[in-house]
Write a structure and sequence with these properties.
alpha+beta; 50% helix; three-stranded antiparallel beta sheet; 379 residues
């Protein structure tokens, strides 16, 4: 089973595997009787790149059920409606594919216009997963899924409904159009009586949420690509870009998109959404791209990538000293990170000096102390 590949050692996974047929039979009987309910799990916060994310995990039993629903229902039925340059959460694509497509779009623009003079519109949403509306999700999928499949999807979405009984009547009337922040909501202790329910937001930790987030903006993808005719457009979840030679046309497109996004209950992040020249360094998915006047593309990882790894290695050194980690665990993490930065197949990043400095830090923290201690122990 694919979902237990990297967590087969956990107790709940092994326990489910021992009782797999019994669990599947119990689910089928409960679902047919209409008594099935998803398990309640404790949420947690995850700090990623300096930002806190609210994660609503699901139990392994529920993961098996949702994984089957996603792999055999949602993905086969929704994938044909996605554009080729929508690369998130699809097998065979991902971040590497999206970065490759960005490079291809820069190259094709250069060859078609003969220069690197042009503009790029980069778009980002405010709290994308927190503001996906359940009614719009169901409406978009009606006709693509059967009534039974829609009902099961409603059961999944119901687990993500937000109790906003603390809101006044005025606040509740506009809550579907206002930006919802799950981290701020869960950081405060609200009275939850069930009187007022806000039916939007999907949990980041669920496979269903990833597929819904992938499909939610598909109409806008097709509008930009087909109706407006912008060739150099791609999206990675809520991060998207359009490359064009006219700044005015990109401004007009942005104003149109603000209206279309608002119709879907989303707001564009004004700080991260911008139009800039492609002749200057452009950052997409934490990677800096430089299109030179000769058509060459230079790619570098952002400085924050190395800064975070330096901080992480120093913390690992303390944990190794306190025997909270083993050297093998540290080495595997660092080599995995280093392999991502130094990958080949035409994706080589020009960060040679930074990588050399990171290797030096790794040696100073983990290799040299071991050599010195062995040397003095031998004397």
């Amino acid at each position: 089973m694919e979902i237990r590949k990297n967590i087969h050692f956990k107790y709940n996974v092994q326990n489910y595997r021992l009782n797999e047929l019994k669990e599947i039979t119990a689910f089928r009987e409960a679902y047919e009787k209409g008594t099935f309910k998803f398990s309640v799990s404790k949420p947690f916060y995850l700090r990623e790149r300096g930002r806190e994310r609210y994660i609503q995990p699901i139990t392994f039993r529920d993961r098996v059920i949702i994984h089957a629903f996603c792999q055999y229902v949602l993905l086969p039925k929704l994938t044909p409606y996605l554009i080729y340059d929508n690369c998130a959460s699809i097998k065979g694509k991902g971040i590497d594919k999206s970065l490759d497509r960005f490079r291809v779009h820069l190259q094709r623009y250069y060859f078609s216009h003969g220069s690197n003079e042009g503009y790029i519109l980069q778009i980002d949403c405010r709290k994308y997963f927190d503001n996906l509306r359940h009614d719009i999700i169901i409406e978009k999928l009606r006709g693509k899924l059967t009534d039974e499949e829609i009902d099961f999807l409603k059961m999944i979405l119901k687990e993500n409904e937000v109790d906003v009984s603390y809101m006044t009547d005025e606040e509740y009337a506009t809550c579907m159009d206002d930006v919802f922040n799950a981290i701020e909501y869960n950081a405060q202790k609200h009275e939850k009586t069930g009187e007022k329910i806000m039916r939007k937001s999907v949990g980041i930790g669920s496979e269903t949420s990833q597929i819904i987030g992938l499909y939610y903006l598909s109409e806008i993808d097709n509008y930009i690509k087909i109706v407006k005719g912008f060739k150099y457009y791609a999206r990675y979840m809520d991060d998207s870009y359009v490359i064009h030679n006219s700044k005015e046309e990109l401004r007009e497109l942005l104003e149109e998109l603000k209206v279309r996004y608002s119709e879907l209950g989303l707001q564009i992040n004004e700080k991260k959404t911008q139009i800039r020249r492609i002749s200057k360094p452009v950052t997409f998915l934490k990677t800096i791209h430089i299109l030179t006047n000769t058509g060459k593309i230079i790619r570098r990882k952002c400085k924050d990538t190395f800064k975070r790894e330096r901080i992480k290695l120093k913390k690992f050194a303390l944990k190794l000293l306190n025997r909270e980690m083993t050297y093998k665990m540290v080495e595997l993490q660092y080599m995995s990170w280093r392999g991502t930065i130094c990958r080949n197949r035409g994706r080589m990043y020009k960060n040679h000096k930074q990588i050399a400095r990171m290797d030096k830090l790794f040696n100073e923290l983990f290799i040299l102390p071991f050599i010195r201690s062995s040397y003095y122990a031998g004397r």
